[in-house]
Description:
9 strands; single chain; mainly beta; nine-stranded antiparallel β-sheet
Amino acid sequence: MVGIYSYFVYCMTQIRQISVPDNNFGFLQKVNLVQSLLCCLYLESNPLEPGVFTMRLKFPDGYTISPHTHPNVEHVTVLSGNFLLGKGENMDKANTERLEAGSYTSMPPEMIHFVFIEGETVVQLTSVGPWEINYVNPEQDDPRLR
Length: 146
């Protein structure tokens, strides 16, 4: 795992075209990025710093993300599993769009949305940092406040 991490740190420091062969992927644990124990992998740049970044997120079956917004556009490609995306402040699974492997969505800045995960799911997310997640009901839903 240390070798994989070093490889990605090296890639993030280079200002050039970046290619990462699929067989080199290993997920790094990042606590409280969205919720505790969510696995993520930075492919290009650091989402907490200014500039465009790309990362992969791996969600376990049954995972949910409560209604929230981001200050910048988000581009999401579903690589595996089922990513159920809903819009608005009321988290209702019946009012989601099912995005299966190969699906793509783009969300404008400040769009209120929520997520349900079915089956282990991996998505690739590209946005502009510094990346923030702002929960509609932070006292109830923000895991960073627990």
